[in-house]
């Protein structure tokens, strides 16, 4: 099976500084970077449009028709997916917003001071404090998975009941973090080991599989794709390498890897299983799997 770079964004089209966010939605790829721009790309990485969004774009999330962005400027903004026309500012605070996730009609936003705000219909409906900046965020049902500096925290919340939260467990680890197919994956405090746990309260959120020294340098990016009964994980980081792992039962094994030629900050999966990587100096590439 091929695992190689198919195409890269043209130098004249790419961001002028590090890419922090990638998301595939509406049959297009959206990117956000330290240059403050959001760009939209076709599947073959032909530039389709761009907008000056923030001082720097830290994270992106999407509903069926709306793209959400957050920044070090304290803004959370909403954009029309099909045109990137600004719909408005849904929140303005004094602190940086680091992470956005949209799940089942709710937008979750984590900031630099450890506050996670819940938005429905662009209005705050709940707020959770986790004491430290939120560098990773995921949701499954009524379980929220967040990353503080060196810990992953699992919190249970009661939908529709403001302020009712229970901390279920805390596990040593750091971002990146993803939640997929009843599992959550993240990296060790060293930044080089890859860990997968059950995202299930009854299981005690037990460890399923672990790979020591999955990368030679710190892992910055992680994305998962369902593959039948298995789960494919993709990782990238400071060693400028993107790796493909297969989780089959309790076995997590390396399947493929390729050189990205830049520090990988973020990964996203396309509809055909293709993987997009963004990173240093605005570079974006597509890997065919």
Automatic annotation (TrEMBL):
<dbReference type="InterPro" id="IPR036322">
    <property type="entry name" value="WD40_repeat_dom_sf"/>
</dbReference>
<feature type="repeat" description="WD">
    <location>
        <begin position="12"/>
        <end position="42"/>
    </location>
</feature>
<dbReference type="Pfam" id="PF00400">
    <property type="entry name" value="WD40"/>
</dbReference>
<dbReference type="InterPro" id="IPR001680">
    <property type="entry name" value="WD40_rpt"/>
</dbReference>
<dbReference type="InterPro" id="IPR045182">
    <property type="entry name" value="JINGUBANG-like"/>
</dbReference>
<dbReference type="InterPro" id="IPR015943">
    <property type="entry name" value="WD40/YVTN_repeat-like_dom_sf"/>
</dbReference>
<keyword id="KW-0853">WD repeat</keyword>
<protein>
    <submittedName>
        <fullName>Type II inositol polyphosphate 5-phosphatase 14-like</fullName>
    </submittedName>
</protein>
